[in-house]
C-alpha cells in the first residue's frame, strides 16, 4: 500500500508540474492570438476581420497589445499554434471540440442559404423545400448542411467545395457567392459568420438562416474562445471579460453583418 501511495504522490507531483508548465505558456505582456491570415471576413492579416476587432477589444480590456501567430486553419492548426505554445487563444472556436478548452460561448450562429434577392428561391428557408430540387446548389463538402441536403434528395444538385483549403490561394465562399450572383449557382448553403458579412456588402444577394430544420445534423453552433486544456485561470479571466463586455462584442458582430441567434439557434438575438 505504501508503494501505491508513493506512486500516486509522484504522479500527482508530475500532474501538478504539467499544469504549472501549461499555465506558464501564457504570455502576460500581449494577447497572443492564433489566427488564419486569410479567413475573411472572420480573421485577416490586415486586421479587418471581425475576430480581429474582438481580439483588439479583449486586449484593450487586458491593457496589452495583440500579437498574432498566423497559420492556415485546417489540419494541424491547433497543434502547431496553440498546443505548441506560440499563442494563447483562438478567438472563434466551436463549442465542444476536444482540441481546445472552450470558454463560455459569446455568440450563436447558423448555416443558411444565400440566393439572389430576385431569385424564385429567395423565400426558401428549409433544405427539404421541394423548390430547391433541380437547381445547382453550392455547399462545402463535409459540413452539416451537406448531410441534410443529401437526405433531402439534393445530392445530384450539390456542387461541392473542399472543407480544408489554404485561403491565401483558394476562396470557396467567395467563389460560391460569385457564382450565385452570376446565376451559375441557384443558391449556396454557407456558415453564417462567413456569408453574412459578405452578403451585407452586396445588395443583389441575401442570406437566410436555416432555423427550421427538423432532421439531420443541427444547423446552429455556439462559438467560444479556445485555450489550452488545463489553463483554468486564463479561461476564467476570458469568461469574465466576455460576460462584462458582451454588449460590445455583440455590437462588433452586428456591425460586421454576422447573423446572431439566441442560445437555442431559433430566433435572432435581441
UniProtKB/TrEMBL annotation:
Keywords: Signal. The keyword Metal-binding does not apply. It comes from the Bacteria. Transmembrane segments: none annotated. The keyword Signal applies. InterPro entries: Quinoprotein_dehydrogenase, Solute-binding_3/MltF_N. Residues 30-256 form the Solute-binding protein family 3/N-terminal domain. Residues 1-20 form the signal peptide. This is Substrate-binding domain-containing protein. It comes from Paracoccus mangrovi.
